[in-house]
Amino acid sequence: MKDIVILDHVTKRFGDFTAVDNISLKVEKGEIFGILGPNGAGKTTTINMILGIIPITSGTIIVNGINVSKDPSKVKQQIGFMTQETVVDADLTARENLEIFAELYHIPESYKEKAIRKALEEAELVEFANKKAGTFSGGMQRRLNLVRAMIHEPPIVILDEPTTGLDVYNRLHMWEHIRELRKRGTTIILTTQYLEEADDLCDRIAIIDHGKIKAIGTPSELKRLVSEGSLLEIIVKNSDVEKITNILNSLGIEPKIENERIRASLPHGKEKLLSKIIELSEKEKIEILSIGLHLPTLDDVFVKLTGSALRDSIGEFKSNFVRFR
């Protein structure tokens, strides 16, 4: 079976509020599938329905051939789930935390010790096996959380914002663990607010906003929804907006104006127009505060599809902007 998770016209309502609105998607076996969106977009609600934690209002979810609504307990054996909160028992050792989950997932006694040892190795916690989890750093606890959720070696792992709250070092470390999972053939569903994370890790991404899926595709496919070339951005004083707009129109560029910020798409081969814009602006005595080109990002995609930006808290986008004083 190529599609291991299938959502078919799924809706979830809480009273009069529609948290997830008639979404359909398919996750292929062995891929990392990202669900990208801001807080409140419907990401966690979608995950909870896949897990069978909350009932579906309408539609169908199939996980590894199992209908979630008909057999939610069987679905739970197919999935390892890591929440966005780090949930470990601080008073228990790393080994004891893993022993509890080995029991919960009914791992046979004959294999339990091997499974625990393997989990400790993967989390790089072998030398800390008998230390209380409450003494661990945030990154160590998150790694323990991950291997605990997949100690039963499920074919599917769901990671709900797995790097939230981690510093850059531990975030990159978690990325490596996720890539290793994929290499072993595990299917991963990843929810995130981090654009760089989605771009770097995911084979395909669903962009969700206000409970609706706006687009699904590879990072490259999604970026092509914005432009096949480069994106031009210019910032001028409000009094110069009309003048710079006229210059762009004269060069065959269709600008989008947002207060003092002007954006436009430039096809491949037209990047040389940047110097022409600067030249004509100097003649018209337009004070350019900022001008530059960059390739489309997932944030550009999100702006195009939703009308607002999704800020990447990993770090500000580094463009090749030229500053003018």
Task: Describe the protein.
By secondary structure, the chain is of the alpha/beta class. The protein is 34% helix and 27% strand. A six-stranded mixed beta sheet has the order 6-7-8-3-9-10, sandwiched between helices. Strands 12-13-11-14-15 form a five-stranded antiparallel beta sheet, covered by helices on one side. The longest helix has 16 residues, at 168-183. Residues 312-325 have low confidence and may be disordered.
Query: Which percent bin holds the helix content?
Result: 25-40%
Separation, N- and C-terminal Cα atoms: 60 Å
Give the class from helix and strand content and strand pairing: alpha/beta
What's the helix-strand series?
Answer: EEEHEEHEHHHEHEHEEHEHEEHEHE
Q: Pick out the low-confidence regions.
A: 312-325
Percent range for β-strand residues: 25-35%
User: Quick one: biggest sheet?
Assistant: 6 strands, mixed
Q: What is the C-alpha radius of gyration, as a whole number of Å?
A: 24 Å
Overall residue-averaged pLDDT value: 88
Apparent shape: elongated
DSSP, total strands: 15
